[in-house]
């Protein structure tokens, strides 16, 4: 994890050097590196460890070589240096005794997207520490990473070029109020001072420039304008100059003042931000400050007192919309390991009820950069919950219930809202560090920060959009010959409260908008035609979708040919392919429960007419039996076999399909026998048919 992202928690446990050194010079240098490591100057410490490592004899000082490799890896891990994995591998090679090396190696490999190797090392750590939640979560995430990446969310993520500068880091953007027309973020970019850009002294912690807050505002065209340090926040002097003066005057190497993540109340008038300033060269940790805006300038910051113990470090504030609840990050006693998210409530100008959010949010690793939305939904970054590597952004949604737990160092019960935790998924998350999300008002659009794809670990600001999901249904309403029914009406009724009636267009088409997470019933009607119904739903759809739903309405006044009902040759046994057509008739009868029909079968002119009539009667009965087996009442069905006695009378649709058949032509023996053999076969095929026609429309109405 990039230390710049939580640079304000820079007190680390030192590791005492044990064992003899190969030379007095190396011994002195390792001690110097250990001292810098202990006070959090990781960049300087890593450089010294690197020089010492190559000079330590592996045969005589194996333990020391392993420890130096591990410490070097720790420095690189915190600094987001890709060489961390190599250092941990060296520590494993030289038998570093603490199994934590396998956990750190696994995390470093996961950070590089090497999920199989990372899972292997998580498993090795679990052999030694089987109850480690972080290792369990890491191994599980690595086993699932490939599957997760194949299921991205609908978010569209692009680099926010307006806010990024080469060879610098910019992160943790925050909208200034719910109007979302101004933004503030943290960056170590070059600072404009008159006609030149001033570079501040590099930090011994990161080896990079120290951080300030910067702000920008949209113009009338929605374009982000000149980025600058917010007026009044740092007083009249330029912060970059103050940082240089502080470090120079002290003669110490503890670093310059740093400004970190910020947040704002909904009205944009109150800001909370993280600030860390060394005093007499001593880093006293970070604090949260509060500033009020009057006009275009910010007032003098005031420290927010959260803990009685002033040595406790706090940072990364997030404030509720009404300003009465503050979320923040701290490694205060009573946590769960690493950095935890806490909350406090304001009462009469004092912050009370300081409470750890508990094990549902916090893990033994780090939970950082909380953001709280207008509806109470909490977003935060974590490298302890199952994720893709490094820090991932998570959403904690309130369930409407509470949960009770006991903090680690007390038996006192604490009641907190019960959350459901969701990883925000790809493309918002990556195997790098993803953190510091902010939302544009009440929309699902905004910005976040990430160091994905950055070889040197610089953080950049990204924009994300969640396109609106658009659902619709469209189609055409025609008669059974495909001709548009221009007077047809579509009725749409939905569980979302929709009750809509639409006259179709002149060409028979229609289109209706649908809502997400709803179920709909549709009904197509036209005068002189049977109704047709269908259902559809938008529940569980993960992207925009337009249904195509055509309706072919059957006339009440004339027979309808069922084109796909077939029988075995010379028999009345239905073929398997006939089921779909007959099931369509079952649906039509179900949609129109007050009709009765005659179901008739017809043959061609070939063969004995008496035999043909008997065959057709048995075929009609076979169809009726099928309908009865599907739940249609017997009283609604009248089978009829006409043999060859009722040849087809050609209509326009048949003429259009077969131009040699005139409209209104009866396909009887006189017409057919004068045709060539191939056309006789076509006419005989047309006459072999199954039809239904409506007999009554008042069944069980009276």
Please give a structural write-up.
The protein is of the alpha+beta class. It folds into 4 domains: 3-149, Serine Threonine Protein Phosphatase 5, Tetratricopeptide repeat, CATH 1.25.40; 156-465, 6 Propeller (Neuraminidase), CATH 2.120.10; 471-553, Carboxypeptidase-like, regulatory domain (Immunoglobulin-like, Sandwich); 561-696, OmpA-like domain (60s Ribosomal Protein L30, Chain: A), CATH 3.30.1330.60. Helix content is 24%, strand content 29%. The protein is built from 13 helices and 34 strands. Strands 7, 8, 9, 10 and 11 form a 5-stranded antiparallel beta sheet that branches. Strands 1-22-21-20 form a 4-stranded antiparallel beta sheet, with no helix packed on it. A hairpin with a 6-residue loop joins strand 2 and strand 3. Helix 1 (24-38) packs antiparallel against helix 2, helix 3 (62-78) packs antiparallel against helix 4 (84-93) and helix 6 runs antiparallel to helix 7. It is elongated. Mean pLDDT is 88; it is low at 7-22 and 237-255.
């Amino acid at each position: 994890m990039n230390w710049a992202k939580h640079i304000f928690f820079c007190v680390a446990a030192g590791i005492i050097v044990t064992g003899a050194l190969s030379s007095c010079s190396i011994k002195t240098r390792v001690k110097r590196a250990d001292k810098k490591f202990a006070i959090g100057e990781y960049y300087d410490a890593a450089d010294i460890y690197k020089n010492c490592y190559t000079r330590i004899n592996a045969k005589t000082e194996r333990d020391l070589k392993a420890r130096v490799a591990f410490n070097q890896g720790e420095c690189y891990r915190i600094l987001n240096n890709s060489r961390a994995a190599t250092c941990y591998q060296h520590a494993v090679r030289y038998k570093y005794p603490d199994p934590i090396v396998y956990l750190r190696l696994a995390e470093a490999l996961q950070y590089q997207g090497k999920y199989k190797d990372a899972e292997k090392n998580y498993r090795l750590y679990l052999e030694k520490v089987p109850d480690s939640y972080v290792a369990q979560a890491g191994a599980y995430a690595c086993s699932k990473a490939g599957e997760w990446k194949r299921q991205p969310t609908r978010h569209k993520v692009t680099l926010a070029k307006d806010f990024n500068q080469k060879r610098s880091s910019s992160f943790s953007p925050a909208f200034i109020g719910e109007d979302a027309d101004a933004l503030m973020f943290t960056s170590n970019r070059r600072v404009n001072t008159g006609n030149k850009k001033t570079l501040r002294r590099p930090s011994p912690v990161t080896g990079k420039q120290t951080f300030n807050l910067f702000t920008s505002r949209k113009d009338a065209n929605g374009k982000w304008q000149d980025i600058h340090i917010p007026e009044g926040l740092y007083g009249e002097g330029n912060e970059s100059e103050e940082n240089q003066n502080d470090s120079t005057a002290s003669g110490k190497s503890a670093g310059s003042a740093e400004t970190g993540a910020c947040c704002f109340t909904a009205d944009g008038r109150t800001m909370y931000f993280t600030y860390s300033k060394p005093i007499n060269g001593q880093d006293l940790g970070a604090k949260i400050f509060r500033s009020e805006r009057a006009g275009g300038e910010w007032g003098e910051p005031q420290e927010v007192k959260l803990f009685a113990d002033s040595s406790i470090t706090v940072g990364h504030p997030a404030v509720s919309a009404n300003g009465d609840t503050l979320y923040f990050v701290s490694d205060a006693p009573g946590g769960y390991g690493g950095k935890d998210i806490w909350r406090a409530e304001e009462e009469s100008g004092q912050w009370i009820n300081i409470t750890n959010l508990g094990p549902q949010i916090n893990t033994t690793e780090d939970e950082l950069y909380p953001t709280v939305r207008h509806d109470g939904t909490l977003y935060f970054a974590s490298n302890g919950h199952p994720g893709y590597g490094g820090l991932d952004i998570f959403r904690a949604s309130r369930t409407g219930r509470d949960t009770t737990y006991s903090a680690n160092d007390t038996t006192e019960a604490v009641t907190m809202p019960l959350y459901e935790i969701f990883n925000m998924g790809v493309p918002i998350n990556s195997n790098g560090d993803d953190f510091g999300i902010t939302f544009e008002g009440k929309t699902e659009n905004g910005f976040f920060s990430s160091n994905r794809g950055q070889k040197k670990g610089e953080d950049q600001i990204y924009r994300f959009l969640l396109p609106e999901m658009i659902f619709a249904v469209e189609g055409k309403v025609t008669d059974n010959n495909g001709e548009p029914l221009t007077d047809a009406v579509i009725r749409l009724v939905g569980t979302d409260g929709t009750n809509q009636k639409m006259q179709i267009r002149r060409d028979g088409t229609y289109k209706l908008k649908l809502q997400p997470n709803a179920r709909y019933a549709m009904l197509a009607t036209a005068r002189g035609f049977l109704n047709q119904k269908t259902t559809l739903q938008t529940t569980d759809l993960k992207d925009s979708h337009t249904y195509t739903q055509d309706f072919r309405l059957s006339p009440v006044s004339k027979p309808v040919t069922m084109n796909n009902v077939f029988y075995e040759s010379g028999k009345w046994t239905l073929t398997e392919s006939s089921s779909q057509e007959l099931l369509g008739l079952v649906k039509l009868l179900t949609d129109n429960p007050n009709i009765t029909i005659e179901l008739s079968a017809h043959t061609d002119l070939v063969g004995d007419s008496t035999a043909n009539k008997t065959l057709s009667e048995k075929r009609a009965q076979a169809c009726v039996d099928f309908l009865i087996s599907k739940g249609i009442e017997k009283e609604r069905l009248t089978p009829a076999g006409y043999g060859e006695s009722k040849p087809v009378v050609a209509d326009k649709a048949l003429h259009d399909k077969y131009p040699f058949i005139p409209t209104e032509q009866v396909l009887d023996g006189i017409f057919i026998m004068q045709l060539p053999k191939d056309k006789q076969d076509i006419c005989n095929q047309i006459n072999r048919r199954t039809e239904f026609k409506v007999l009554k429309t008042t069944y069980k109405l009276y």
